[in-house]
Specification:
Residues 161-259 are annotated as: Disordered. The chain is of the alpha+beta class. The chain has ten helices and 16 strands. The strands form three sheets. Strands 1, 2, 3, 4, 5, 8, 11, 12, 13, 14 and 15 form an eleven-stranded antiparallel β-sheet that branches. Strand 3 and strand 4 form a beta hairpin. The longest helix is centred in the middle third of the chain and has 21 residues, at 202-222.
Length: 460
């Protein structure tokens, strides 16, 4: 099993601040065993420990762009949402490595970044735990100032049913990989590192919470239950007895009204490509960072240069110069189900036009032109076909083949405008006096969408 050596900066930190001469070890497993002599690690945990050392070397790195850094922090925050330490309930040098990297970062975070609705609550709790718990015993002159009462947004507790199911799957996976039993994990926030300590001072609260979490972890490490019940501040679970009542028939929910098939179901918006680069694992793909007007916290978005963005993969490499993909407005399809393309999750689609080809010919040979929104359009502006206005679906159901049914009608006119030809999708035309014919043009409130040169082209 390959291992990751402890880097020089972490070794220096351990020599200065960690007990038991842990800084003398270059192997992370040996350093962990020096720090926590009563702890034993399975082979799977040793491998995971090494991976966390690699992660710690990259997390919050100034060399990475804001979107990638936010993605790493979000992933770590989610991981810690149901764990006291990165290994679950067993402490290791990986926790110290993350503290070493994150403490100066967390110290500069605003209250919103720490405990806001999109804040990193669990990372803040982990930093507070490592710096205060006697289990780690770090000798620190300067600790991160964490105000336990300053909580901007109280996050919801972990759903017990979902957590039970997650643990079950972890155990099954562990058994399948013959990696031993899954270590017990402590759920929740350790009271969030906030509140729950009566009238004590903030320092006493921090000490109490850290001691409680430390005692709980120490009990797991030593394989012994803590005496006298759970310590003050430790997570507890209460079961409320409910009186049995006669089951009442549940009121039937009204069936959801299904929207009629229409181009309006497709969420078309103005997108602003902030940057684009080649896909690291696919020569034909570009990976673009695009602002589409999403609200903060929207699923499948991240933050880049202060803007909410989507990551989008598009098969345009070799068809459109990369330079033309930079800092420009495009039309994005925003409610297709995200797909992972060669390891990168793509959360929208860039609309482009190409000539119609005969059956059997290569439909991707080009030329290709991006659809241009009208001058003055802003990222997030709604785009629609004239006469087909309506509210789009949140996410198109792949089973209903809505996109596959409607997209063949997307075309370009002799005037180089983009439109929807209802004649190609006759089931949408309707009947009688309301029957639709011709090509409905694609527009925003600012004007029509267009392409540079391709007439009668396919748009997808």
């Amino acid at each position: 099993m390959s291992t990751s050596a402890i880097d020089e900066t972490l070794a220096t930190f351990l020599k200065s601040h960690a007990p038991n001469n842990a800084g003398a070890e270059t192997d992370p497993v040996k350093a962990s065993q020096a720090l926590f002599p009563d702890t034993t690690y399975t082979d799977a945990e040793k491998a995971e420990l090494n991976q966390w050392l690699i992660t710690a070397s990259h997390v919050a790195s100034p060399a990475e762009d804001a979107a990638k850094s936010a993605e790493r922090l979000s992933s770590l925050n989610t991981h810690l949402s149901s764990r006291t330490t990165v290994l679950g309930a067993k402490p290791s040098v990986a926790d110290v490595a993350l503290y070493h990297k994150l403490a100066p970062v967390v110290s500069k975070w605003s209250a919103e970044e720490r405990t806001g609705e999109q804040g990193y609550h669990h990372i803040v709790r982990h930093v507070d735990f490592v710096q205060n718990s006697p289990l780690f015993g770090l000798k620190l002159d300067n600790k991160v100032n964490i105000e336990l009462d300053n909580v901007v947004f109280k996050i919801k507790p972990v759903d017990a049913k979902a957590e039970k199911e997650r643990k079950k799957k972890e155990k099954e996976a562990a058994a399948a990989n013959a990696s031993g039993a899954t270590p017990t994990t402590l759920t929740g926030e350790q009271n969030g590192g906030q509140g729950g300590q009566g009238g004590k001072s903030k320092k006493e609260k921090a000490k109490g919470l850290a001691q409680a979490a430390g005692d709980a972890v120490a009990g797991t490490v030593a394989g012994k239950p803590t005496s006298g019940g759970p310590p003050e501040g430790a997570p507890t679970q209460k079961k409320e007895k409910k009186e049995k009542k006669e089951k009442q028939p549940k009121p039937q929910k009204a069936a959801a009204v299904e929207k009629p098939l229409s181009p309006a179901l497709i969420d078309l918006r103005v997108g602003h490509i902030l940057k684009a680069e080649t896909h690291p694992n696919a020569d034909s793909l570009f990976v673009s960072t695009i602002a589409c007007g999403d609200a903060p916290g929207t699923d499948n978005t991240s933050e880049y240069e202060g803007q909410v963005v989507r990551t989008v993969c598009s098969g345009l490499n070799g068809l459109i110069p990369l330079a033309e993909m930079q800092n420009r407005k495009i039309v994005a399809v925003c409610n297709l189900k995200p797909v992972t393309m060669r390891g990168v999750k793509s959360c929208a689609m860039v609309l482009a036009a190409s000539p119609k080809v005969a059956e059997g010919e290569d439909s991707h040979k080009g030329p290709v032109e991006l659809v241009n929104p009208p001058e003055g359009a802003k990222a997030g502006d709604r785009i629609y076909f004239e006469g087909w206005e309506g509210e789009p679906e949140a996410v198109l159901n792949p089973k209903k083949k809505i996109w596959e049914t409607i997209q063949p009608g997307f075309t370009t006119t002799d005037g180089l405008e983009v439109g929807f030809d209802v004649g190609v999708v006759p089931q949408l035309a309707g009947e009688g006096a309301d029957k639709k014919t011709g090509v409905a043009k694609l527009r925003t409130k600012e004007g029509l969408c267009s392409i540079p040169t391709l007439k009668g082209a396919v748009v997808r």
